[in-house]
Amino acid sequence: MQQTPPGNFRVAVVDANTLAVIGLKRVLQEFFPMLQIDGYGTFAELSANTPDDYAHYFVSMDIVLCNRAFFAERRRKTIVLTLSLDQTSPLPDFHCLCINQPEPQLIRQLLILQQHGHSGGRNMPPVLSSPRQKVLTDREIEVMSLIVQGYINKEIASRLNIGLATVITHRKNIMDKLGVKSVSALTIYAVMQGYVDINRI
After folding, report:
1. Using alpha carbons only, what angle is made at residue 83 by residues 10 and 46, rounded to the nearest 5 degrees?
2. Best label site of 51, 113, 131, 138, fewest CB within 10 Å?
3. Which of 68, 67, 21, 69 is nearest to 41 (CA)?
4. CA–CA–CA angle 32, 112, 134 (5° rounding)
5. Which pLDDT score is estimated for 118?
6. 166 vs 133, which has greater pLDDT?
7. Terminal Cα distance for the chain, rounded
8. pLDDT of the residue at 87
9. Strand, coil or helix: what is 17?
10. Residue whose C-alpha is closest to residue 180's, from 198, 192, 166
11. What is the DSSP string of 105-126?
12. Does the pTM exceed 0.70?
């Protein structure tokens, strides 16, 4: 099987549901802005676009079931998109991702998959900036950690013994410095940079 060239880390999202493809592409782009993410509505479209160049496929269960031989050969890089959290999948040998759940849980499941398959950045393209480059102050890191653990501004102020207005200012500065616009994106950053353990979100 052809290997993905270094520096050209491509991911395919394959689902007949166009909205599901668009939504998952957006979430994955927040995860890894350095990725090239392509969307396809059918297996035939994927097949026509050098499928072995992709490092991973996120594929709806019905497409995997109809093309089982192809994906079974590429099981390690296939993530099956399911609509249920039911653990009795007809594809027990594949990694599965339930897309029918609230965004925080979806993000957490994606982070678990990423850590399982690419812990420490293994087999991933280099990030745009070094993880060791300190972007946030120590206090901003404390605030960020509490945000992604689900604490509201008032609770953060109480835990850190600072004013509510200070928390709000820190929160704005964190988002501005990191260029993120959502708590989901902030969660991805915090976990992937090692600031927060995934078991605490």
Report:
1. 30
2. 138
3. 21
4. 50
5. 52
6. 166
7. 37
8. 60
9. coil
10. 192
11. HHHHHHHHHHHHHHGGGTT-PP
12. no
